[in-house]
Every structure is written in structure tokens, then in C-alpha cells.
Amino acid sequence: MMKTETFILKLPSSGPFYCANRYTTDACQPDGITIVFAHCATAHKELYEPTIQELLRLQQGPSQRNLRIREIWSIDSQSHGASVDTNYELLRKYGPVSLHDYSELLHHLCSSEHLSGHHIVGVGDSASTSAWVLASKLSPSIQFQALVLLEPVTVTPEIEEEGKLRSNLHSQWVSARRNKWDDTESVTVWLKKRYPWQAWDSRVLEMHVKYGFYSKRDPDTPFCIIPRCSSEHELSLYEYEPHSSAGEELPRLCKRVPVHVVFAERPEIIPRKARRAICDSSAGRNMASVSVIPGTGHMAIMEKPELAANVIWNALIGENTYSLDVNARTPSRSNL
């Protein structure tokens, strides 16, 4: 059975608190790896629990290949999930939380007493992939065992214009999106009719409604349900500059740390040109492995959490069952 412990930790420099869950089972070993999940924009730590459960199960199976897990962490950034409740008043004064702020949080956790001496594997999802790359630049340096970047949105020099366009399109979409409902049932009905949420695993969607929304806390307005992550804070994670800085750092990171990249099958957000650029070994972006999660779009880990866990596990044990050739001219099931 999976055990969950919740922590509220404080950042020394930027001030806000952040919340984190630690997951273990009786099969966990003290000499195993510690996996740290960092969520994408608008998500929160609980959305990764089906994937975490599967990873903890896999270490007990015949494919474990001497890879053991010590513990798994999943965090809420300063402006997401339960951290919003803790930081509510502070966030009103602090302003938008940037991707650089997010990277400071990741660095703080990995450098804290809780993870001292651990063999850390960072797992990023979409926007948080850039946060992990930026965290690797901070001092003291984190001694990563590996990094796993799911649907990385880092902007390399070859795709600068595409990166700027993507940032603008995200901003337009967020600004036009509904952000107020009468009750949680209305939220569920609305999400189930719209992409990407309609493609999510039912357990993940249920947890998103439970932990990703709350009743508005302003007493001067009528009762309503709103996202915990405001549009303002979501938009700050789409800003171009931090993703570009992460793209510049990526070749240096690949020299120090095994970096595994995992793409969705459908290139919804990251076109094939961007995939080739991110994994361009001639530019120093030498990936330890490149994999794909079959039958998924950009929010792959939300759509097929167990399959995502298996892809991550296989990459870490060196059994790249779901390998992807990003340079193939003709996409197919095996090279997408």
C-alpha cells in the first residue's frame, strides 16, 4: 500500500511556501533512487499519483533490473495546488510566480535536508521541464542521477520564432478560457466536453476537479468555483525568456547528467521540427534516450498515467521499448 506524507516548506529567498507529498511503500529501499515530479502549468501534485503508484509497483516486478526506489516526491509550485491556500495573501502582493521562481523551488527541495544524500531523478512535464533545466544552473549544484523531460517545451536557438508564437497562442487561449463556475459538478461537466481534459484518465480528471479548484475567497463577490491557479500565474509560466534560457543551458546539462526525453505520439504542442531541435546531438543536446508514449497528446501523463510510468521506468533501466527516431523523414508508429 502506498503511504503519503505531506510537507509545507518555505523558500528562503522569495518568501512563499510550497507544498509537497512524499510517497513510499514497504518495498522501498534506502539505497534506491528518489524521484521528484514537477507539474506542468495549471496542474498540481496529486495529478501524478496514478503514475507514481505504477512506478512503485514496477520496482517489485521482474523488469526492475536492480533499480529500486527510495521514495517519490510530487510538489505544488508556489502558485499552484495546495500552495495557493498557504500563500493566498502573499501571492496577492508578490505578483506572478515565474519559471525562474519555480526553478528555485526545485533547487530548494533537492538541496534540503529531506533529500540530502539521495540519488535524485527529476521528472518534468511540459513547462516544468524548463524549470528543471534552470534549476540545474543554480548553486550549489544538484547531483542528479538523471532527468526525465516529458514533452519538453524548452526553446532552442533553431526554433526561436516557433517558441515565441507558441507563447503568444497560449496567452490568447488562456485569456479566452472560462474561469468561473457555479459548483464543482458544473466544472466536471464543462471539462469533460473539452480538450485536453476530455482525453484524461477519469481518475486524473476527478483529482483535478478536487484539488485544482476551490470556492472564491473574496467575500465581496458571489459564491463561485475558480481554478486554484489563476490565469495570471498560468500565463507567467508561458513567458518566452525562461524557456529560451533553458534551451541555451540544455547542451551543458547533457554533458553532466543523463537526460531522457519523452514525447507524446501526437505532436500537438511540440512539432517534429522542435523535437529534432531539442534532441539535436550536433548541437550538444545528446539525450540518454528518446521515447514516446503511444496514443497520447501533449498531456500524455494525464491521458495514460500507467503507460507513462512504464515509459519512464524503461528509460531509467535502459530498456527503451518505446524509442523514438526524431530524425525519421516519414513518421510511423515506431518513429512518429
TrEMBL record:
This is AB hydrolase-1 domain-containing protein. InterPro entries: AB_hydrolase_1, AB_hydrolase_fold. Residues 35-308 form the AB hydrolase-1 domain.
